[in-house]
Amino acid sequence: MPERRRLHVRGTVQGVGFRPFVYREAVSRELTGWVRNDGTGVVVEVEGPAGALQALLDAVEHRPPPLALVESVEWRAVPPVGDRGFVIAPTDREGGTDVAVSADVAPCDACLAELADPTDRRYRYPFVNCTDCGPRYTIVTAVPYDRAATTMAGFGMCAACQTEYDDPTGRRFHAQPNACPACGPRLRWQRGAARLTAQAALDAAVSCIAGGGVVAVKGVGGYHLACDAAAEHAVAALRARKQRDDKPFAVMVGDVDAARQLCELDDVAVAALASPRRPVVLAPRRPDADVAPQVAPRLAELGVMLPSSPLHVLLLQALDRPLVMTSGNRRDEPVAHDDEDARQRLGPLVDGLLSHDRPIAVRADDSVARASGGRVQVLRRARGYVPQPLRLPVPAREPVLAVGAQLKSTVTLARGAAAVSSHHLGDLDHWSAHEAFRSAVEHLQRLSGVAPAVVAHDLHPGYRSTAWALDTGLPLVGVQHHHAHVASCLVEHGRTGPVVGVAFDGLGLGCDGTLWGGEVLVADLCRADRVAHLAPVPLPGGDAATREPWRMAVSWLRLALGDEAAVEWGATVDPRAEAVLALARSGRQPTTTSAGRLFDAVAALLGVRAAVTYEGQAAIELEALARYASGGPDHRFDVRGEVLDPSPVLAGLLADHRRGVPVPELARAFHGALARVTADVAAEVASARGLDAVVLTGGVFQNALLTDLVAGDLEQRGLQVLLHGQVPPNDGGISLGQAAVAAAQQH
Ligand code: ZN
Ligand code: ZN
Ligand code: FE
Fold first, then answer.
1. CATH superfamily, domain at 536-673
2. Most exposed of 175, 349, 489, 580 (fewest Cβ within 10 Å)?
3. How far is the CA of 153 from the centre of ligand 2 (A)?
4. CA within 13 Å, CB half, 4
5. What is the CATH number of domain 187-378?
6. Nearest ligand to the C-alpha atom of residue 509
């Protein structure tokens, strides 16, 4: 007796080959019925013997296609109708649209084989793709995900492509970006008045780069600026034209072997590097790495990535050497993704533009992950990751839009348990990033069809995201910055708390109106209590104190050794020391407990860096020095009640430095002292409150050495340590944390 089931599959199930997969599974079991997309996912009706139906259900739940992310499968019995065979039915456009579109995926092996096969009609075609790979998020303009709702809408398929597209047994069945040299996008090269297309365009770009030129290359989510990574003059020219002083450039290589010539890669790092998401992976640089010193000045690590599109594959094959592949923008501007915009903004910076006529609907920067000690941590979540949803431990009763912080901005839209974070948007104090913020909010709402009922925001009234939230007129939930950091880490681990939350970062507004950043909280998703923190010191000159770490050194030394010693040291670094001391004494400056600013102060004190050209530079360079140093003097924080005072550490380090103790040892000693006091306090709080887990979060925990030291210590004491993996510990994770808190507070 045949039975019939109706299945409803939700999650990332469109644009990932889900319907052909169901088709093959059904036909191979001689089941009848149909499968189709609708605005909420994939719907299947299937009929046959009960055992075969169960086998199909198992396959859907446990062996979906590689790119699918099944969130739920609901099924119910329906009356048999006796259809003739199994078909893929047209998309149902009625109903809601809470389907998640897949992230962009690097070329699969089958497509790479075609790319390399002289007899294939897509031989060397830079836009080859199939249902297992290709662009998704960055070409989608609406849902349901169909060709008409992508930037491929303007390309009519040739007969051969249409046949593939219509064949439910093939790899290109309903592959929306399906294309070939006859009907699809074409490369373009532009240099001065010269214009070339197709293979000639690629050849021209290759010879330009080989000759030491800088070329703008249109990638998956935006333009890159590319040059030969070993050519010092080319890298120097790129730095000068991009107006970027020291911030490291990422390097693209052709394959894992080539990456191994540049970096020390363990298995975990290789897996991240070669994953279809293709992030930039930061890993320890080999001493003999053949790249110009200007690629990543004074750093122990190098960011490497593998080709993220067939075009990059062809470029790397032709050039056969590491290429700098840095975002196509000038300092602080967003990455160019629109062709006309790229021509205007990047044209003057480059010797030529390698572009094409498939538009990018939404910009997505390269994602960045750090591989260290067998662990991978995402620092920037964008291309390849977005818009994959994350699950909230407590589902939202009403849809929440969380607008994040100010720097490394992201926004998150949550409905039920599914939270979708936007790509990295940049720093909102730049007008263009603010525009990107607004379009990201619109894009997320359009893709999900969700209208938020509640807006979650940071407590800082000066953030543009907060101002935007106030303007919506919707009910608001203010979430304290460091509570949001802790919550974002709880989401990753599917926990609700309470836990001990150590949140070390730059600056975030605290509940008392001062600037926090060195906090120990006891927190669950609903609330957070501050139980310990670094000693507060004035931030002399506000933003200037962030750009000029020596100011923080003066402020901290004043606490540690008094006014006279502080100004005496300061005068050796900058003639404005006395004025800065007066500012610090005035009582008119905001105070901060920031751990990030403490790192800055130590870097300045040890002569590592008095002023920075990019955020976090002083701390990154201090970590690089400490990384391979051993031992160093033992200095301890002074703990008074809930205040952690680094005065004895600073006084000790300054004296050691004057005695000539090598800087790497002192940098290491500082890491050791901070790690020790952090673990001591966290363990004490955990024991006093009966808690078993400690979250380490905030931008300072991008520091792998500090993370290793604190986590190792806590684990030895039998505590569970919750670290970030998929969600950035920096402010890129704030919007997710805000969404989790707002959702939990609805219960
Ligand atoms: Zn493919
Ligand atoms: Zn074609
Ligand atoms: Fe923060």
1. ATPase, nucleotide binding domain (3.30.420.40)
2. 349
3. 14
4. 13
5. 3.90.870.10
6. 3
